[in-house]
Amino acid sequence: MAVFWHYSQNVDADADGPRPNGGRSKSRRTTIKHTYLLPLLLLLLTVSACSSTDTIVDPPPPAPPTHDLLFEGLLEATPELLFQDADTGEIRRLLPAGTVATDPAPSPDGARIAFVVSDEEAWTGDIFVVNRDGSGLVQITHDPAMDDQPAWSPDGTRIAFRSFRTEREGDIWLMNADGSDPVNLTPDPLPGVWDERRPAWSPDGARIAFATNAGGNVDLWTMRPDGSDPRQLTSTVDLDTEPAWSPDGTTIAFRRSSNDLGSDICVIPAAGGETVRLMLPGVQRTPTWHPDGTRLVFVDQPVTTDRPDLHSMRPDGTDVTPLVEEEVPGGCLNPDYLKRR
Predict the structure, then answer these.
(1) Would you kindly state where each structural domain of the chain is located, as residue ranges?
(2) Which of 121, 126, 193, 314 is most open to solvent, judged by the fewest CB atoms within 10 Å of its CB?
(3) Is the pTM of this model over 0.70?
(4) In CATH, what is the architecture of 70-339?
C-alpha cells in the first residue's frame, strides 16, 4: 500500500505587493504550491516504480558436482580403490572387496583408472587399467621389476610411470595407454645412478614434473615429454617430491620433508620462484588439486601416529576441512579426482 502525504506552505510575501483588498495573489499561491508538489510527485512516482519492478532474486543453485574423490584406502586389511560420492559423501569400492590395488590414477575423461598391483616384499608390481564401473580389467605392464606411480597425459593417450626395470634406481618411463612402446625418459648417466619418481603432467601436456636426486638432493624438476630440456625447479637440503600441477598450470603443489620441520605441503610457481610452505601440525603428503583450483586435498596426520586421513584446504593453507576420516578405518593415501561421465 502506497503512503502519500500533502506538503503546503503559506507564503506571506507577494512579489507584486499587497492587493487593494488586502488579499494575496491567487496565481502566486498556486505557483508556489505546484513548485513544492512537483518534485514530491516525481519522487513518489520513482519510488512506486522501483517498488513494483524491483524483486528479490534468489541466487542460482550451486552447479552439480563434476568429479568424485578417488583414493587408495584400507577399509579392512588390504589397500583398495575407493571413491567418495560428491553428492552423498558415501564411500564405495571400485573393485570387489579384498582386491589389492594402490596408486590410483584416473584418465582425464574419467572413463578409466590406472592402478598398481604390487608385492612390496619382493619389490615387484605392474600397472593395470580398469573402466570406472570396474569392468574391462587389463594388465598393461609385464616386467619382473616394480612398475608404479602411473600418470595419464592430458589427452589420455599416454601414461608416464616409475619403473625399476633397469635394475638400478627408479626412472621415469613413458608408454602408450595400452602399455605399448615403453621408453625410458631419464636413463642414468653411468657410472652415476640417479633416482626419479612421481611423474606429473602439466595441464597442457607440455612438461612432466618429477622428483630426482640428480642435483645431489631430492628436488623437483620438469622436462618435456620426450625427456629433453630438464629444468631444476627447487634446490634444498630437504626432500621435495609428489608434485601436482594446478588446473591452470601456474602453480605446483608438492610435499617437502625435513628433519627439523617435518612433512608439509608447499606451493611454488610452475615457472620457478619462491616456495611457500603451508605448515600444519604433523605430517601432510600427496597433494592433489580440486578441479576448480580453489582447494588442495592431501593426506593428513596431525600426529604422526594418527590414522592418515584426507583433508582439504585453500592454497594458502587456511580453512583445513576433513573429507574422509573414520569412514575408512585403516586410513587413506594418494587422492585424486575422478571426472563424472
Answers:
(1) 1-52, 70-339
(2) 121
(3) yes
(4) 6 Propeller (2.120)
